[in-house]
Specification:
The protein contains 17 helices and 14 strands. By secondary structure, the chain is α+β, with helices and mostly antiparallel strands. The strands form four sheets. The chain has a four-stranded antiparallel beta sheet with strand order 1-2-3-4. A four-stranded mixed beta sheet has the order 5-8-9-12. The protein has a four-stranded antiparallel beta sheet with strand order 6-7-11-10, with no helix packed on it. α12 packs parallel to α14 and α14 runs antiparallel to α17. The radius of gyration is 26 Å and the shape is elongated. It binds protoporphyrin IX containing FE.
């Protein structure tokens, strides 16, 4: 494109040639006038002029990327100043990245393999997941098999199970990390990068059911053939799996579950009857890791899709893309070998699995909180009020300071716990970390509440508008509550945290 002068641009003020300058680049908006969501009047007001400040007061930078075809040249001798983020790049906004990703800081927790995993995962999310997530969050459609296949091929599905032997002979994201080096910090990276698709409903629709249920098979299946078959089918994306524990009768109080599994007289199979509610991904699942009441106790069974297993979706306040479902088991026959763990010890199975689930939710929440903080920093720096950027108002700086504090403290606690996970057995994690993880889960979602509230106030009407500058804020203030409930409600988490601490209280009067 030939360089243009400002004098030349100034001549293009008619409907046949309507030019405007944004960040030293010239855009021909003649044919765009009627389609412009902000109307044609404003475009004519800036005809032939530099509209940079007005533009960034009202638009996200990505608008220019979407409409790059309107660009007809750059002003002679001038260079665009606004950074054009490239796929996989780190954010240059202060606090836009966790401390370990900020160039001037170091961290004892992460190594070069973590850094290469982070880059590969972000590139994958931005290239393959985010576009579909944004589209499906809006339409409410489910994830495509094509995307599941891509994730299976890159072994992202396998990585979502966390560290373990299941990763040892797999090529992870084209060799970004060796399976033997994959630890809980790698797991944290995968989970936090996934959140960057900025679509909370789709985020659950994107195999959240698998991430909380296949782990039960890996840890507790008694039958080796069953374990191998189901794991391979799910890792390859051919089959889907979900965790079926909560019921209309019982949420966080798992002991109140009413679904029954009656063992046949010859001990060869169970007959399962009952219902399950709020089960992510159940409508398209082939396998159901199901909590049941067996004779005299609570047990967990792997139920395979068959006649008598009926599912339907439940409408919730986030996108239907999450595939939140209701299940009915009507006289379903399940082989006895599908018992996971021991009979009557289902509580141990479910509780130990909850730990990783809740930790994973904390990873998500910490990243969501940071994303919203980054949006607020960008907006308050860009938005002009009373002739000055919004951030020049002391009250806004107070709010940002509080947000930064909340975001950084939650991430720091998360990393401290993650470090302990790297050095503890699965059993010890259940014993020593279920309390801290539960407390952190509540802390992080309480942070979300405050961040969502202040962010909405900062964005004003835009924080309530589904498109444009405030779309991430509008989404967050509508969906942040999910993580305060999923995997255990805040009060239940707090109670668990303190009860676990009291178990280790010394028997001495102080
Ligand atoms: C290259 C030039 C431009 C392009 C490609 C463009 C594109 C867009 C797009 C895509 C939107 C919708 C944003 C969304 O909801 O996602 C929008 C909104 C808007 N635009 Fe532009 N625009 C341009 C220049 C301008 C200029 C120079 C002005 C003048 C002030 C302007 C004023 C507005 C207004 C007032 C809105 C509505 C914003 C709101 O309600 O928050 N635009 N524009």
């Amino acid at each position: 494109m030939a360089p243009l002068t400002r004098e030349e641009v100034a001549k293009h003020t008619s409907d046949e040639g309507l030019w405007t300058i944004v960040d030293h680049k010239v855009y021909d908006v003649s044919d765009f006038q009627d389609a412009h969501p902000g109307g044609s009047v404003v475009l004519r007001q800036f005809a032939g002029k530099d509209a940079t400040q007005a533009f960034y007061n009202l638009h996200r930078h990505e608008v220019l990327e979407q409409y790059s075809k309107l660009c007809v040249g750059t002003i002679e001798g001038e260079t665009p100043e606004v950074i054009d983020p490239q796929v996989g790049d780190l954010s240059s906004v202060p606090y836009g990245e966790a401390l370990w990703l900020t160039p001037q800081f170091t961290s004892p927790y992460y190594n070069s393999a973590h850094r290469s995993l982070r880059k590969a995962m972000r590139t994958f999310v931005e290239t393959h997941i985010k576009p579909e997530a944004q589209e499906k969050e809006e339409s409410g459609e489910y994830i495509s098999q094509e995307l599941i296949d891509k994730m299976a091929e890159a072994n992202i599905l396998a990585m979502r199970m966390g560290p373990g032997k299941h990763l040892h002979n797999r090529k992870l994201l084209d060799g970004a990390i060796d399976g033997k080096d994959f630890d809980f910090f790698s797991d944290l990276i995968i989970n936090q990068e996934l959140v960057r698709a900025n679509a909370r409903g789709f985020q659950d629709g994107n195999m959240a059911g698998m991430s909380i249920s296949l782990s039960v098979i890996i840890q507790w299946a008694n039958d080796e053939e069953l374990k191998k078959r189901v794991t391979e089918e799910v890792f390859s994306g051919q089959k889907k799996i979900c965790l079926a524990v909560t019921e209309a009768f019982a949420g966080s109080d798992v002991a109140g579950i009413q679904t029954t599994a009656k063992l046949s007289d010859d001990g060869s199979h169970y007959i399962v009857n009952g219902t399950k509610k709020w089960i992510s991904n159940a409508v398209w699942s082939d396998y159901f890791v199901t909590g049941c009441r067996t004779d005299g106790g609570f047990s967990v069974l792997l139920v395979e899709k068959q006649e008598g297993v009926n599912t339907r979706t439940i409408r919730t306040s986030y996108s239907a893309a999450a595939a939140t479902s209701f299940i009915e088991f009507d006289n379903v026959k399940v082989p006895a070998k599908n018992l996971l763990g021991k009979e009557k010890q289902g509580f141990t199975v479910i509780m130990s699995n909850f730990n990783h689930e809740r930790w994973m939710i904390v990873c998500w929440v910490c990243q969501w909180n940071r994303t919203v903080l980054e949006e607020c920093l960008k907006w308050t720096n860009q938005r002009m009020v009373f002739g000055k950027p919004l951030v020049s108002q002391p009250v806004i700086r107070q709010k940002l300071a509080r947000m930064i504090t909340l975001v950084e403290s939650a991430q720091a606690w998360l990393e401290q716990i993650t470090y302990q996970m790297n050095h503890m057995s699965y059993q010890d994690q259940a014993k020593h970390l279920s309390g801290p993880i539960a407390l952190l889960k509540t802390y992080s979602t309480r942070c979300s509440q405050e961040i969502a509230d202040d962010a909405t106030n900062m964005f004003g009407g835009r924080g309530l508008t589904a498109t444009g500058m405030g779309k991430v804020i509008e989404h967050f203030q509508r969906v942040y509550k999910f993580d305060a409930i999923l995997g255990g409600a805040e009060e239940v988490m707090n109670d668990l945290g303190v009860r676990q601490a009291m178990r280790f209280m010394p028997n001495s009067k102080l």
